[in-house]
Protein 1
Amino acid sequence: MRYSKKRKNDLTGKIRKCAGGFIVAGVVVYAVLNSGSFSDDGPSDEPETAAFPPVISTESGEDITEEAGDQVAEDDQDTEDDSSTTEKEAVATVPVTPPAPLPEPVKLSPEAKLADCLTASGARLYGAEWCHHCQTQKAAFGDAVGRVNYIECADKSAANGQATACRDARIASYPTWIFGDGSRVTGNRPMWELARNSGCEWEG
């Protein structure tokens, strides 16, 4: 079969185009095979996914990576350690005030002890301000006379000048001691006798 020169040129151009297309297709196939998109068993239908680091949630509601979470935990631990150290240092720097010494017990005099015992036993001393023996009896107790249960009988406002309490107790002379058991003595009495009559002790 004979072709004209023009026909030959057209066929030659088409052949070249086809050859070029085959070359391009071969390059593409070679590139795909070497890119790993296909396995030995053929192309994979599974979609490719990006490899992201594990994500954890914090107490504040934030999502952070596991590596960042480890760093946050380390920072929190460091903060707690620093706070604990600061508290220990603060406690260590607080000055300690020693307790105040206890006061020494008051040492009572023998007169004070006897006066307290007489009053506790129910003993009463009846006297009058104008009575000399009454003043002597009271003076025997010294500063502890205020501990004695003393009843003043002188009362100028009363009909016979005697207080009602003394009149009810039938006091006829001064001084008069009436003890807890109802017994009585008159006149200025020594301390040991008052102790004996009231069941107390005299240490003078």
Protein 2
Amino acid sequence: MESHDATSAGSVAPPFIERRRIPRVDSLDRVTVGYICIATVVLIAHFMGWRGASPTAAETVWLLVAHLLVIALAILAPISRARARTHSFLAEWYPAIVMGGLYSTVGLLNSTSGSIVTFDGMVQNWELAVFGRMVAYDWIRAMPNPVLSAVLHLCYLSYYVLVLVAPLGFWFTRKRGEARQAIFAASFCFFVCYAVFLVFPVAGPFYFWPFPDNAATRIWPAELVHRVVFRGDAYGSAFPSSHVAVSVVATFYAFRGSKVLGWILLVPTIGIFFGVVYSQIHYGVDALAGLAVGLGVSLVVPHIRSGHDLKTGRRVDDVALPLASPAEIR
């Protein structure tokens, strides 16, 4: 029986197929780089004297280096995702990891201004127009209730856990699509707030009015909140309230992944909305603006992200690459 050799007969052997993951820039990386570009423009404008600002050359260089490091993370993240067999923790969480540092740079930029330009006068006028009074000043003095104060100040403190509960919970229960969406939404919300802080700095009532000495402020939750704000606040970051905005986003996406978790987070989120005003950290309109930003981001984010299976977090950038056949190699 005659044997047929397809290769010797002149026909080309079918190529071998190899599937490789091609690095793809994610929406998370794009919004991160976008915010860094905005912050860099503001930094350069400050260095050139915008609003009478006077950062030193050394301060400017260090901040530029910090911005470049974040951009480097955004560049490396797609490579890490492409090489990871499952999901790369650092590639998805790097904005959350550096967010505290970015918040600090907001305060540094706003406090390097020689004349300390803020828009508190404008926001205080809005406060009077909306509420007919300075609610951030009057409320804690009119209702110095220790129980109310403890509840609202504890809700304020819960923010630092609340914003991480949903994404961490989803991540470690292997709901990676929900976790990635929650991380992106919170990061995007932070960046929106930070960008506003840079171009429209508002110090807030914390810097303008003395704290009252009454039953509402002599309890440990109130004292702890004041210490946290005094040591960790970024100057000019009052409007909109990022505490309110990001809490709303975190709760919204908690509901999308787990109704039970969403209802649990809703209670402290409501407390944060009122607590930031009662504690005299934000104006009432700061809280309202934070609520508007949080709801807006929550509704817009699903339309921003594309190319992902949100239920599984599956990447869609796998491609089939034809390789040379053994005959072609020979």
